[in-house]
Known about the structure:
Blueprint: H1 3-16, H2 18-56, E1 60-65, H3 76-85, E2 90-99, E3 103-105, E4 108-110, E5 113-117, H4 121-125, E6 129-132, H5 137-141, E7 146-149, H6 151-158, E8 166-169, E9 172-180, E10 194-198, H7 199-206, E11 212-217, H8 223-238, E12 244-248, H9 249-292, H10 294-302, H11 307-348, H12 358-384, H13 388-393
Parallel strand pairs: 5-10, 7-9
Antiparallel strand pairs: 1-11, 1-12, 2-5, 2-11, 3-4, 3-8, 6-9, 7-10, 8-9
Amino acid sequence: MNPLESFELAIKNIAAGKVRAFLTxxxxxxxxxxxxxxxxxxxxxxxxxxxxxxxxxxNTLNVNIFGRGSARAVSPDDxxxxxxxxxxxxxxxxxxxxxxxxxxxGNETYSTSITGVGEDxxxxxxxxxxxxxxxxFVDIDKRSRVCVVGSYIANEYYSGGAVGERMRIAGTDFxxxxxxxxxxxxxxxxxxxAVYVPYSVASRLSGAAVNSxxxxxxxxDEAAASKKIVENKLLDVFGNSNAYRVQSMTELLDTMxxxxxxxxxxxxxxxxxxxxxxxxxxxxxxxxxxxxxxREIGIRKALGAKERYIMSQFVIExxxxxxxxxxxxxxxxxxxxxxxxRILTDVTGESLAVSPTSTAxxxxxxxxxxxxxxxxxxxxxxxxxxxxxxxxRYE
Length: 395
């Protein structure tokens, strides 16, 4: 009997007991489906995380200074000079300074995010100015009382026509010179509910020195070297690495991606236990099948069938059963991935796609087929070694 005939016979035997075959395949189906779904969710989360980091700028360095209050200090001019001295590594820089206080528009007073920034801040964060202009160097140099607002504030308090209007921030009048394009859903307390003023003004009004900066690197490949340049500068100033923190968004993204990858591998491995359970089920049903077909085996051996033919028949049947279960698991995995994408998108309001990779699909299918062969070997070996006389006499 050639492999093709063994395959056809395996299909007939599976079709003759559809319910039993399906129950046998169930562990394989669940295992393959779970692996595909978990890997798909991991890929979706990874893509979403990368997208979020890219929106913040994966080519950025965030610098926080804790060494104030001592005789040593670093000023915005020092940081600008550092960027100018390293044009092959550092590109743009913006000091940032958060300040507290209410914002008053007409008779309405409300709380919002107020941040002092430099002229390059919007380019660094990839924010677009929808109307008016951004902040200029002269605004910072002259400590001009001007500001740029998010789209939520412009729409909520100025009916969309905010440029040229005035608002009172921490008791000081400011003129709105620009409105940023909508970044999110323009909701309260979101990224569009914010006010940006020159950092020189924010520092003076808050009475606190600038203690944080955001920089861009020329190349993400040189992010580590760029980070080292900034750290060396600050170490020379403070003489203590605890006085500052330099965080590379690229390194942070890599770290989080590695952590997510480890979690996905662990979860996929746990889901893969179902494949082993499914393999035990296949072995059990194949042992039952050997017992049920003992006389058939005895007749075939009496007619001259060799042991390897008997063994190949049962191994192929086990492999076919497992492979069909794997195919059904793949179909179920893709179906649930599509459903999960819709549910996650509706629940979170974010574009979070559950997208299985072809590598995960092929691996899951290959493992399922291999498990069928592995767990089908013992029953096949038992069938092949049956004594033909005993098999013919079996009731």
